[in-house]
Specification:
Two copies of one chain form a homodimer. Chain A has eleven helices and five strands. By secondary structure, chain A is mainly α. Chain A folds into two domains: about 90 residues, Orthogonal Bundle (Arc Repressor Mutant, subunit A); about 140 residues, Four Helix Bundle (Hemerythrin (Met), subunit A). At the A-B interface, helix 3, helix 4, helix 7 and helix 9 of A face helix 3, helix 4, helix 7 and helix 9 of B. The structure holds a DNA duplex.
DNA sequence: TGATCTGAAAGTGGATACCAATCTATCAGC
DNA sequence: GCTGATAGATTGGTATCCACTTTCAGATCA
């Protein structure tokens, strides 16, 4: 927990990933400075960090906003996740540690159990974890961090496009993936991964539903000291918007 | 050309990639502020950007330094490049645009011509460009930017470890790679890519050779306007320094 | 002599105040 | 109702100040 700006960036990042801060939300320097009780400069440094990570866009002289990726960019993020994980599969051929597959199998079993209990929420989290475990098999911290960054951007998309997944099919594909890797059928595993992410992407629906914005104070879990600030958000509540359908 | 800190970050980045700033070099805020004629805060913002990119490490209360990756991390960077490009190859199966291979073929021809002329320097640059072109085939800007970032980190390694490449063999492998992609032999293409990067990695030699440090003024190509500044750097004029050979 | 302790200097991290440029929004006038 | 001017708000940046940490050199002591 070195720099204050790092902490603040982490807090904002967490709020974005938890969808307490929705895409397009204004991240005013002054307001954030009051919330975190720091100077504007520290806030700006935090926003710079977040913008380098792709979670925030900074428009000169206009301010920072939670990133609102276009549908085209959303597709590219998923495609890049596919690329990385297909590459990971290709690498597994070099590593004769078949024992590591037990981790993947354990994850699949946990997800199946969660589904059997009707716990979609938990199943969804296990589903995400599967892909982390897969990349973790490389024991390559650079690749793991790269993958984590892509996943953050994917999490952002969940807030922008309503998503409903067929967890049963996703879990089933995870199981088949493990089996293919176990049998060293790399090409088919890669093909399945591609189909898998296409299924995930199909779970996202373009949606007119309003993205309800909470005031920053609530989103960031800080007690609002100056009640005036809550009223400041003059713009409007309904940033609803239809993404002009890309090539998807 | 928006933010000043962006420009400064770009300038420092360029100097690092050109090896005018060697790994481990101290990037003092005050000194950089004088060189670029801005306040320290703008410099700090630039350093934050660079640290998020992995080219600079910031140690709390000690300052910023050009990143000096360990050999382990160097291996991970190359492995991650392999992963991404293997994934790209897997993706090419989805895209029936065989015409795009002409770009790759053109690059290989240019590199062969450069080699025939004995221009190793130029051949090396074409060799790097080949991998950019390969990733560009995906037409995926997210993937392209990811790849570019990895390549920046790889360029940093060139400065840290002496490297001498067998450009002939590298070029030959590029040619074989194109042929395999053309014949849609994805698995073998991926295997070749893996071997290819292992060959590249073998070109790097761990080396105790001193990394000669230039003063920042020269490295950043700025005329020193205030002759006082030249003296201010009281330490000494010879920032030369022998890097204590790491854990390699 | 050599090891350790101490204190000053330097550098980073951050706060505050201030200014210039720009964007925004309201309001007057046509 | 629309356009244009003006005033306010916000950002980008500077300068100055202070607190904290690291570092290094000199003093002290075994």
């Amino acid at each position: 927990m070195s720099g204050r700006s790092e902490q603040i960036a982490a807090t904002i990042c967490e709020a974005i990933l938890a969808h307490r801060l929705v895409p397009g939300a204004k991240l005013g320097e002054r307001e954030l400075a009051e919330i975190f009780e720091v100077s504007r400069i520290v806030v700006r440094q935090a926003l710079i960090r977040l913008s380098e990570d792709g979670l925030v866009t900074v428009e000169r002289n206009r301010g920072a906003f939670v990133a609102k990726p276009s549908l085209a960019e959303a597709v590219e993020v998923f495609e890049t996740l596919t690329i990385v994980e297909q590459g990971v599969i290709a690498q597994l051929g070099n590593r004769p540690r078949t024992s590591l597959l037990t981790e993947l199998r354990g994850n699949v079993e946990r997800q199946k159990a969660a589904l059997a209990n009707g716990n979609e929420q938990l199943a969804g989290e296990f589903g995400l974890e599967f892909h982390d475990l897969l990349v973790a098999l490389t024991r390559n911290r650079v690749a793991i961090e790269l993958h984590a960054q892509l996943k953050r951007r994917a999490r952002l998309l969940e807030a922008l496009y309503r998503c409903d997944f067929d967890h049963c099919q996703l879990c089933d594909e995870h199981e088949r993936l493990v089996a293919l890797i176990d049998r060293k059928q790399w090409t088919r595993a890669q093909q399945l991964m591609d189909e898998h992410y296409r299924l995930v992407a199909r779970g996202y629906r373009i949606d007119d539903e309003a993205l309800l914005m909470q005031p920053l104070h609530l989103a960031l879990g800080k007690p609002m000291k100056t009640p005036i600030a809550a009223v400041r958000k003059k713009g409007n509540g309904k940033h609803a918007q239809r993404i002009t359908g890309g090539e998807a």
